[in-house]
Design brief:
Shape: elongated
Largest sheet: 18 strands, parallel
CATH architecture of one domain: 2 Solenoid
Number of helices: 1
CATH class of one domain: Mainly Beta
Oligomer: single chain
Length: 425
């Protein structure tokens, strides 16, 4: 630790004193932040109030916890010999009882630290990696800089961290936090993170957060199947064809590459599909379902709103209970409005309750219906259709055009022979 030596204080009690105190506190803080070594004072007597977690340096003569001079750690009310001190004998860390009343705490299998600068604490703990730490009954830290804390915790790769009973961190730079009871639980590949009871992160770069959630497919999956994310109880970003999938929410499921499911019980069950909302579901590639119970069936189809449904490719349903292309025969059908319905190829229903049930038909307006193919219907309206208006010079040269001539104050139409008044004059 950097040595702290105070400067001389100012003589006068004025603003300079406040600045001095502030500066000295900063220097003290900086001294703590530049720790390069920690020196323990050699003890010549038992500490007055020893507690679990204490680390001491005993002189071995006036104060000998059991193995002479050296470093000891306090575990379960007894001293664990860590290493010989200056001039002392080196050895593996092992249990040392300092009091007959602690004999019942003696481990049945001694901890074993075989890696350089490794530490093993508790029954049958094994730290075999360089700079590794195993703390807990049967905990194992078997690679460099690995950390295993908890009964049965296992950190078996470089820089892996396993925290919790039976936690498993098997990939380099992996992190497993929580109780992982199953053989496939935990962080099983490079750069994976599994947090939660029985959470599983199986492919490279996977993230799993939540009880029993799963990211990835199988163990040692190809790296192209990685970078999946699952967050929530029993959320699953997993499937035979997977990579970059995201599942967020209780029992949310994203089962294909680039699929995204967000919301309780949501399900994205096709490549590059998106399901957002409670029980929202996509079943075909690139489909989008947004809203509670929205159900998108058909490649590239879009559902937007509660209880919306699509059943054909490129179909669009927007609005509560809107339906488009159901049955697979309505490719490109569009239904926009609460309760609207567009049934067949190229049909359009625009307006609340509008229904276009025939081929290439269009129903526009509240409760409008288009019963005939290739027609546009406004029959849900009780008012009128207002056509464009303009003077004679503004007439478009389009056969079939209908407009109001503001110069003659008459409705007129265009046919091959020219313009004529619709009133016959």
């Amino acid at each position: 630790m950097a040595r702290y030596q105070p400067e001389n204080p100012p003589q006068a009690v004025d603003a300079a004193l406040g600045a001095y105190i502030y500066r000295e506190l900063q220097r003290i803080g900086n001294a703590f932040l530049t720790v390069d070594a920690l020196r323990l004072l050699e003890l010549h007597a038992t500490p007055p109030k020893p507690r679990d977690g204490d680390v001491i340096l005993a002189d071995g003569t006036d104060f000998d916890p059991g193995d002479g001079e050296g470093f000891y750690g306090r575990v379960d009310g007894a001293w664990v010999f860590l290493s010989g001190g200056p001039g002392g004998a080196a050895g593996d860390p092992h249990f040392v009882s300092d009091d007959i009343t602690h004999a019942s705490h003696a481990p049945t299998v001694l901890p074993l630290a075989t890696g350089t600068k490794s530490i093993a604490i508790s029954d049958a703990a094994v730290a075999s990696g360089v700079n590794s730490l195993a703390f807990g009954g049967a905990a194992k830290a078997s690679d460099s800089d690995a950390i295993a804390i908890g009964t049965g915790a296992d950190a078996s790769a470089a820089r892996a961290i396993a925290l919790g009973d039976s936690a498993n961190a098997d990939g380099n730079d992996s992190i497993a936090i929580g109780n992982h009871q199953g053989g496939s639980d935990g962080a099983r590949e490079v750069n994976t993170t599994a947090i939660g009871r029985s959470a599983q992160a199986k492919a490279v770069g996977d993230l799993a957060i939540g009880d029993n959630c799963i990211s990835g497919f199988g163990i040692a999956s190809p790296s192209s199947f990685g970078d999946n994310i699952s967050i929530g109880t029993q959320a699953a970003a997993s499937g035979a064809t997977l990579g970059n999938a995201i599942a967020i929410g209780t029992i949310a499921a994203a089962n294909f590459t680039d699929a995204i499911a967000i919301g309780a019980f949501s399900k994205a069950d096709a490549i590059a599909s998106l399901a957002i909302g409670k029980t929202a579901q996509t079943r075909t590639a690139r489909a989008i379902a947004i809203g509670q119970n929205a159900d998108a069936v058909g490649d590239g189809s879009i559902c937007l709103g509660k209880d919306t449904d699509t059943g054909s490719e490129q179909a669009i349903a927007i609005g509560t209970f809107a339906i488009s292309g159901i049955g697979g025969a309505g490719a490109g059908a569009i239904a926009i409005g609460d309760g609207s319905e567009a049934g067949l190829l190229g049909s359009v229903a625009l307006g609340s309750g509008a229904v276009s049930a025939t081929l290439h038909s269009m129903a526009l307006g509240f409760n409008a219906t288009a019963p005939f193919a290739e027609t546009a219907s406004f029959n849900g309206l009780t008012g009128a259709v207002v056509v464009p208006d303009g003077n004679t010079a503004q007439r478009p040269n389009v056969n079939g055009a209908i407009r109001y001539n503001s110069q003659t104050n008459k409705l007129e139409g265009k046919q091959a022979s020219g313009w004529f008044n619709l009133d016959g004059t």
